[in-house]
Automatic annotation (TrEMBL):
<feature type="domain" description="S1 motif">
    <location>
        <begin position="24"/>
        <end position="90"/>
    </location>
</feature>
<dbReference type="GO" id="GO:0003729">
    <property type="term" value="F:mRNA binding"/>
</dbReference>
<feature type="domain" description="S1 motif">
    <location>
        <begin position="454"/>
        <end position="522"/>
    </location>
</feature>
<dbReference type="GO" id="GO:0006412">
    <property type="term" value="P:translation"/>
</dbReference>
<feature type="domain" description="S1 motif">
    <location>
        <begin position="280"/>
        <end position="350"/>
    </location>
</feature>
<dbReference type="InterPro" id="IPR035104">
    <property type="entry name" value="Ribosomal_protein_S1-like"/>
</dbReference>
<feature type="domain" description="S1 motif">
    <location>
        <begin position="195"/>
        <end position="263"/>
    </location>
</feature>
<dbReference type="InterPro" id="IPR003029">
    <property type="entry name" value="S1_domain"/>
</dbReference>
<dbReference type="InterPro" id="IPR050437">
    <property type="entry name" value="Ribos_protein_bS1-like"/>
</dbReference>
<dbReference type="Pfam" id="PF00575">
    <property type="entry name" value="S1"/>
</dbReference>
<dbReference type="InterPro" id="IPR000110">
    <property type="entry name" value="Ribosomal_bS1"/>
</dbReference>
<feature type="domain" description="S1 motif">
    <location>
        <begin position="108"/>
        <end position="174"/>
    </location>
</feature>
<dbReference type="InterPro" id="IPR012340">
    <property type="entry name" value="NA-bd_OB-fold"/>
</dbReference>
<keyword id="KW-0694">RNA-binding</keyword>
<dbReference type="GO" id="GO:0003735">
    <property type="term" value="F:structural constituent of ribosome"/>
</dbReference>
<comment type="function">
    <text>Binds mRNA; thus facilitating recognition of the initiation point. It is needed to translate mRNA with a short Shine-Dalgarno (SD) purine-rich sequence.</text>
</comment>
<dbReference type="GO" id="GO:0022627">
    <property type="term" value="C:cytosolic small ribosomal subunit"/>
</dbReference>
Length: 558
């Protein structure tokens, strides 16, 4: 009897545990009535509860519930003050959804949901009972301006992050699109091969090129592969939405990047460059681009050459190319070099004009007198502007016959117009040497051209000084020291001479470097005495010096 009682109690307790729902759990119930916008649900153990009909509706849809339907609800409280069970269909769906979503998250599976609201930074998504957050950046692969068409539409999402304790779920629609796109790209790329010609639609244009849709996969058409000629911006030859023929240049199987080309479908103008543009030939071209180091000139579509700054002008050496030519200007250029392997043509602008130094050398031989403006003054001379926009240099030593160069240069200023003589033209080194002092000839050379050391000449006394007498010969100044005024010491007195006196002197020295004549009365007298002795006296004649000199002088008088 005791055993039977124990078994009955155990069965009764088990019955209570099975039939009595636990608060905070999901239980099954049956809809027994629908009234006043609520569904009355029998959850068993003689317990009934009420649930708002809207809890049985998906976002944007009508409630789906009828009398007799079995539903799962969440038991929040066994009995309230009215003796009814407090239940919730929404919370039951949430618990059910979280269990399902956690499994999908762990298995990295997609989940289905519908965007039903907009919040700060993104949207809310109903995942079949659980609400998730969809960041704006995760809606599509590109920014979405209008999300209206996506609202309420059931579609797949990828769970990025979830926290059940906090009730947070973050999903992405973009991940699904990218995955589908990657599959589509792989399929399209699998059907493409390098060198293949395909049709594509220009999808986007950037500074560096254009993206072309090849039917589910984009390829990059770089600006340098659009045409053989220089293209400053892709919009010059392409427009969005345009259908074009392109060639597949390269496919990167790992990154799925495709490089495209248009010019490869056209004849390469470089195949004929060597034949059409022989060395030293002159052609007319158009300036397409100007840089610090030169200017690019288009000879024909797809063929450009560089005129280096050093080949632009004979005379303008340190000038920016933009001051010599301008963009779109037509210029004549000479072909200097062709490198077919590197697709480079070196051109010259100055070679189409005669070398101004050659022209100057032909028209101004050495000794020609020229006139020019002082352009610059340096520590070693003057630079004088000449015909042909070139300069000649007057060295310090060529400024004056009488002054030191450092002194003579002080007399010149920028802008002065000077006369000079061409002394040398070096065409190869582009140098012209001028001489200002040579204008009018070399007076010293002319003065001493007919005399030599030992010659007797007549000079004019121009000044009397304590140390001697200043004299002049053919415009050249000289000085006779006191000791050279006479053979006789008593006659070595400067005061016995007067300005304007004419005196015969013997030339004792001709110094072309210092441009000085050495003259002496004493040397003349000694020479005359020696000559007289040789002509009129002998060692055994017994004649005196006075007799000899007298005879010589008398002969001279005759």
């Amino acid at each position: 009897m005791a055993n039977m009682m124990e078994e009955f109690e155990a069965l009764l307790e088990e019955s209570f545990e099975m039939d009595t729902p636990e608060e905070g759990s999901v239980v099954k119930g049956k809809v027994i009535a629908i009234e006043a916008g609520q569904a009355i649900i029998d959850v068993g153990y003689k317990m009934e509860g009420r649930v708002e009909l809207k809890e049985f509706a998906d976002p944007g849809e009508a409630p789906k519930i009828d009398v007799g339907d079995e539903v799962e609800v969440f038991l929040r409280q066994v009995e309230n003050t009215r003796g009814e069970a407090v239940i919730s269909r929404e919370m039951a769906r949430r618990e059910e959804a979280w269990d399902r979503l956690e499994k999908a998250y762990a298995d990295e599976e997609r989940v289905e949901g519908a965007i039903f609201g907009r919040v700060k930074g993104g949207f809310t998504v109903d995942l079949g009972g659980a609400v998730a957050f969809l960041p704006g950046s995760q809606v599509d692969v590109r920014p979405v301006r209008d999300a209206g068409p996506l609202m309420g539409l059931k579609q797949p999402f990828q769970i990025l992050k979830m926290d059940r304790r906090r009730g947070n779920i973050v999903v992405s629609r973009r991940a699904i699109l990218e995955e589908s796109r990657a599959e589509q790209r792989a399929e399209v790329i699998g059907n493409l091969s390098e060198g293949q010609t395909v049709d594509g639609v220009v999808k986007n244009i950037t500074e560096y090129g254009a993206f072309v849709d090849l039917g589910g996969v984009d390829g990059l058409l770089h600006v340098t592969d659009m045409a053989w000629r220089r293209v400053n911006h892709p919009s010059e030859i392409l427009s969005i939405g345009e259908t074009i023929k392109v060639q597949v240049i390269k496919i990167n199987k790992e990154t799925h990047r495709i490089s495209l080309g248009m010019k490869q479908l056209q004849e390469d103008p470089w195949d004929l460059v060597a034949a059409k543009y022989p060395l030293d030939s002159v052609h007319t071209g158009r300036v397409t681009n100007i840089t610090d180091y030169g200017a690019f000139v288009e000879l024909e579509a797809g063929v450009e050459g560089l005129v280096h700054v050093s080949e632009m002008s004979w005379t303008k050496k340190n000038v920016h190319p933009g001051k010599i030519v301008s963009t779109s200007q037509e210029v004549e250029v000479m072909v200097l070099e062709i490198d077919g392997a590197k697709r480079r043509v070196s051109l010259g602008l100055k070679q189409t004009m005669r070398n101004p130094w050659e022209v100057f050398a032909e028209t101004h031989p050495e000794g020609t007198e020229v006139e020019g403006e002082v352009k610059n003054i340096t520590e070693f001379g003057l630079f004088v502007g000449l015909d042909g926009d070139i300069d000649g240099m007057v060295h310090l030593s060529d400024l004056s016959w009488d002054q030191r160069g450092e002194e003579a240069i002080q007399d010149y200023r920028k802008g002065d117009v000077v006369q000079a003589v061409v002394s040398e033209v070096d065409v190869e080194k582009e140098r012209i040497s001028l001489s200002i002092k040579a204008v009018g000839g070399d007076k010293f050379a002319e003065a001493v051209g007919g005399v030599k050391r030992g010659s007797i000449v007549t000079v004019n006394v121009t000044a009397i000084e304590d140390g001697g007498v200043e004299v002049e010969y053919e415009g050249m100044k000289s000085f006779i020291r006191r000791s050279d005024l006479s053979r006789d010491r008593a006659e070595q007195r400067p005061e016995r001479f007067s300005v304007g006196d004419k005196v015969d002197v013997r030339i004792t020295n001709i110094d072309s470097k210092s441009r000085r004549l050495g003259v002496s009365i004493k040397a003349r007298e000694i020479a005359e005495e020696k000559e007289a002795v040789e002509q009129y006296g002998s060692s055994d004649s017994g004649a005196s010096l006075g007799d000899i000199l007298g005879a010589a002088l008398n002969k001279g008088d005759d």
